[in-house]
Amino acid sequence: MTTIKQLSVFVQNQPGALAAVTDLLAKKNIDIRALSLAESADYGILRMIVTDPDTALEALQSENCLVKLTPVLAVVMDDAPGGMNATVKCLSDAGVSIEYAYAFILRKTDRACVIMRVNDLDKAIAALNAADTVGVLKEDELWGL
Amino acid sequence: MKYFQPEIETMPLDQLRALQSERLVKQVRHVYDHVPCYRQRMDEMGLKPEDIRGIEDLHKLPFLSKADLREQYPDGLLAVPKSECVRIHSTSGTTGKRVVAFYTQHDVDLWDNCCARAIVAAGGSCDDVVQVCYGYGLFTGGLGLHGGSHRVGALTLPMSSGNTDRQIQFMMDLGATFLCCTPSYAAYLGESLKERGYAPSDNHLKAGIFGAEPWTEEMRRDIEKNLGIKAYDIYGLTELSGPGVAFECAEQHGMHINEDHFIAEIIDPDTGEVLPEGTKGELVFTSLTKEAFPLLRYRTRDICVLSREKCSCGRTFIRMAKPMGRSDDMLIIRGVNVFPSQIETVLIKLGYPPNYEIEVDRINNSDTLDVRVEFPPEQFDDSLGNIAKKEKELASAMRDMLGIGPKIHLVPPKTIARSEGKAVRVIDKRKLI
Known about the structure:
By secondary structure, chain A is α+β, with helices and mostly antiparallel strands. Chain A has helices spanning 17-27, 53-62, 83-93, 121-130, 139-144; strands spanning 4-12, 32-39, 43-50, 66-78, 98-105, 111-118, 135-136.
């Protein structure tokens, strides 16, 4: 699998809703490596890449959280001017559209990683793997970096 | 056993009418002689008990309203000495002052018989194990079905409401075959069983008798599927005795009114005029046999239709359709009549659980209607756009059903409180008085 499991959690816009999720992950000793929070008027979706998505899913479900594992891409690129541009161009040339994305910098390298949800996973993976300066990470590769 | 009291339940119509007439004449005399406020009303109209010679004269009698009952709190309508009474029950008092109803032993007996008829009509017999999880106490649900179950000779589990773990344990360990509770609690039990890993075929239940709150045909199908049973409706009011005023037979097509004890009329709620059979209007009951608390022409505020059409079950008792809602439940929002049951219908149709909360408010002199709905986990798919789309779909289906558009709020599963008795679904924040 060249996709990464992302946790998507429905959270209501009210004090404590987000804390309930992060508190549970902390108790289960699960590390959040990247996250984004999309919001609308009443609620938001918390999207996270965590160290143990399956355990996190189970823990959140048992607390009646609305949660789902979503396949996303972890795209690595140079952490340098033009790095993101190369990635986006590669996808747009392949006719793939990005539904949402959020980025983080990898600790031990000069590479950056962007988590992406796209409308066509296979096409996106093929295009990104064919490009010189970008690549798609597998789950174990992501944690090795 | 198909009928509990076959000679009464299948009595030819002319005999039934004669029985009603005879009992009405006697009852009017009893009330006139023993209930001062009703006598005063009849006197003011120049009406004497002897003017009522049969059911054809029923329309001459004055109505009783819930307000009258509250005014006579606690015992102004009591028609026998207290020493002859053996029990009271009382309404919940959520919409105002409580109403206290009194029972002699004869009244309890006839009520038990009515509930026994309901249990037998739903397929029950002395071989059944009846789990009663209506509340026991002032509320009539628990002791009503309890009495009916005893009368049938079934093994009765007097569980009362609440403590779902214990309900499930007894249901499984004692092999309950009948379930009696509110429909919302039946739905909750179905959900709880599923959560604990039980399939509908794992329980021994075959039927349930559910009442005390309005519910829809969709909810019935849901309960039937989740519990693996046939779900029967039952109707009653504390003012008239309790559950068992009317009950469903195997046809599940309207509830047979126990006409040897109660006469039903449909009236125009505005003019009080009696409407012909088959017309929608307010249901009015006259209790023919109760000694302690005999109500004549009591206005239920339930909107409903009656049908004398022959039922294939063989009972001759008239049938009442499921009330479209008690006017207590009806909300008037932006001038439109809204029943919570309509919202429930839309939810089940679109695949949502029937757990919801309605909040009505008035902001800048305009009514607002907000409906909180639980998001079924399988429908959540990580897209904000889809959530917004689902909310729009629900709002538009409700607009079609109600005539006014609500604002929908999807909330995570299990965040709306489950009821163990009557479900509280409406929060009306308007201060209209």
